[in-house]
TrEMBL record:
Gene Ontology MF terms: polyphosphate kinase activity
Recorded family membership: Belongs to the polyphosphate kinase 2 (PPK2) family. Class I subfamily.
Protein name: Polyphosphate kinase
Polyphosphate kinase-2-related domain ranges (all copies): 17-236
Keywords tagged on the record: Kinase, Transferase
Species this chain originates from: Sphingorhabdus lutea
Highest taxon of source: Bacteria
Amino acid sequence: MTISLSNFEAGSPFDGNYAKSLKAVQKRLGELQSLHILHNCRTLIIVEGWDAAGKGGAIRRLTANWDPRYFEVYSIGAPTAEEKEKHFLWRFWNKLPRAKEVSVLDRSHYGRVLVERVEGFASEAEWRRGYDEINEFEAQQRDIGTNIIKIFLHVTAKTQDIVLQERLETPSKRWKVTAEDFRNRSKRTDYEAAIAEMFRLTDTRWAPWKIFDSNNQKAARIAILNYIADMMEKDMPKNFPELSPEIAELAKLTFGK
């Protein structure tokens, strides 16, 4: 996919009642999770984006009404010493969803062609090979019925700076700011090039990318949650099963009707 990130920088405020819209889409997501469980579906949600783009906030609101037994959020950081000795995809296999489950990756295997490329943690041969390896990895998951949803949250450098400064000024949020935030900020042009190539080479028929303007986080959250709901619903049976005769009989004996 050829994209221009400048097309996702309007930062338009949410046009509507944010609280009501959030409640409505979270209720919808809760119902969809029930269908997801009942029909033995599996979904992998990949959340990528700039530092301070609101990935964590979107994920918290996404999972707010979900049964915690059937989803897991994985915050992906630097690989361990053991993981570095393996193929880069090795550490993601045990994070894939089983039947009934949703796995949410807060950052992902795309680190190979983003941070590992830009920061020199992978050789050029390794990160260039990574595009095909990622596409094949995702195709394998799709072949066994995994619904793959990939989203990217975009913010301008100006918005990113505002958020970082606000975090530094807020005692309860200072811990979120790391030296990596400033390192990545200084290499924004390199990251923009890596992101553009990532979209071009990994936007596939079986696992397309969706980019969101996150310069207004409330508007972005509603858009992201509705998109994920649409994508979950698209590949999932929409009917709840009828009450089984056994349970109906037990209910009749218990409640008299």
